[in-house]
Design a protein that fits this description.
Layout: H1 2-22, H2 25-39, H3 72-76, H4 86-96
Amino acid sequence: MIYTLIGKFVYVKRHFTVVIRHLTLRKLINLMINHIEYLLRRSNLKSYPVFLKIEPTILCQLRCIGCAQSNNTFKKNLPKNAFLSLNDFIRILEIGR
């Protein structure tokens, strides 16, 4: 329990300066509603997501020696839908507003 609290504090401290610039009253209220719904373990949420993380590709950028993705033919054998198109990315951002 104590490690969880310390982890949350470190996370908030690290991201505070970025978050505070974009924080509005509406976003703060949504954040509080989101946290209450999380604590109550609600399955149907009324709040919006706090953040949206979009992975535009399934590829890893590290290229570790023992990994199959480090092989040059790995990318060539991927299906075309393995990458997010610019139009789909813009559509996701519009939905998330």
